[in-house]
């Protein structure tokens, strides 16, 4: 039923685009016949908006990977640099939460480790919605911020790094076998707000998969049992994402953007001073309005990265006649 609903939505969307295009073309013809420039201009503006929507649907049509339609986990980790880097990690967490909400997805915060003075050391959120992983998968990598630090009394310019890790939720149709003897399970007290129960019991759970070194943590629930179950789901998802990446790299020699996250693999730079610019280093897409980007306006970057990942040409998204 879910697949049928998705197909119905896709077909209906294409029909709406086609009808709207024909209607606006007729309006332009009528406006030109009657010499009404305002009608012509309004119809042309509508056609430009339709082009943007068509480009988005073209990219969505590319989301045909094995797990693209699934919900997704997003991990944020601050890099070296103390408070400045932790504040940057918090800004990224807010950016992706805003993007998800703007896109009609639901967001659940699974785990947050607060910084000593400000920001966060790490956080994990769950984004729920059709194609959530397909849209988010190109965001994995290192994000670089350049700004005048609000935490520097000398008002010097600082460069900070934080990393994003994206991996799909594994549904019942995907079987992932994990040997429990290969895992270490730690419990600890949750941090942050949550009331007396959360702060006084070891309800948070961290599971480390020893052969791969992959570690996941959950502190969302009051119950250790529920947190443990969510952490196992997260670990299965991480191991599945690793397997997907291996398959991609074996099938596609163009693996530069698909390698493991490392501090040398920056995917995007956000410069707030001395000038304002956000630039994706993989596709060359730029924005001179970083405030909008940090408020969740990411579709332009995601669409270009998806087109680049699939076809090797970031410009494909905009080449619609």
TrEMBL record:
UniProt keywords, alphabetically: Coiled coil, Cytoplasm, Methylation, Protein biosynthesis
Classification via Pfam families: PCRF, RF-1
Predominant location: cytoplasm
Keyword set includes Translocase: no
Post-translational note: Methylated by PrmC. Methylation increases the termination efficiency of RF2.
A GO MF label: translation release factor activity, codon specific
InterPro entries per record: PCRF (IPR005139), Pep_chain_release_fac_I (IPR000352), Pep_chain_release_fac_I_sf (IPR045853), PrfB (IPR004374)
Subcellular location: Cytoplasm
Described function: Peptide chain release factor 2 directs the termination of translation in response to the peptide chain termination codons UGA and UAA.
Family named by the database record: Belongs to the prokaryotic/mitochondrial release factor family.
Matching HAMAP family: Rel_fac_2
Descriptive protein name: Peptide chain release factor 2
Organism: Agrobacterium albertimagni AOL15
């Amino acid at each position: 039923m879910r697949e049928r609903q998705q197909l119905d939505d896709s077909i209906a969307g294409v029909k709406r685009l086609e009808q709207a295009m024909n209607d606006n073309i007729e309006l332009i013809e009528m406006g030109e016949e009657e010499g009404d420039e305002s009608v012509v201009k309004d119809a042309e503006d509508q056609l430009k908006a339709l082009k943007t929507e068509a480009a988005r649907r073209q990219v969505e049509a590319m989301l045909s990977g094995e797990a693209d339609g699934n919900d997704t986990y997003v991990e944020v980790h601050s890099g070296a640099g103390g408070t400045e880097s932790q504040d940057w990690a918090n800004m990224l967490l807010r950016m992706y939460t805003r993007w998800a909400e703007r896109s009609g997805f639901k967001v659940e915060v699974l785990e947050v480790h607060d910084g000593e003075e400000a920001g966060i050391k790490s956080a994990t959120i769950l984004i729920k919605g059709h194609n959530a992983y397909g849209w988010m998968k190109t965001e994995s990598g290192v994000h670089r911020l350049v700004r005048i630090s609000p935490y520097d009394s000398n008002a010097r310019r600082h460069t900070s790094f934080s990393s994003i890790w994206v991996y799909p939720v594994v549904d019942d149709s995907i079987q992932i076998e994990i040997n429990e003897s290969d895992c270490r399970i730690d419990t600890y007290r949750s941090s942050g707000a949550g009331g007396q129960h959360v702060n006084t019991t070891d309800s948070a759970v961290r599971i480390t998969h020893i052969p791969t070194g992959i570690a996941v943590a959950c502190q969302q629930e009051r119950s250790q049992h529920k947190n443990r179950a969510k952490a196992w789901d997260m670990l299965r998802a991480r191991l599945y994402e690793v397997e997907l990446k291996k398959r991609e790299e074996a099938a596609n020699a163009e693996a530069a953007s698909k390698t493991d996250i490392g501090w040398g693999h920056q995917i995007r730079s956000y410069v707030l001073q001395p000038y304002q610019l956000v630039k994706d280093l993989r596709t060359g897409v730029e924005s001179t309005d970083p405030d909008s980007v940090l408020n969740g306006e990411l579709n332009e970057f995601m669409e270009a990265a998806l087109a680049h990942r699939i076809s090797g040409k970031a410009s494909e998204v905009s080449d619609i006649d």
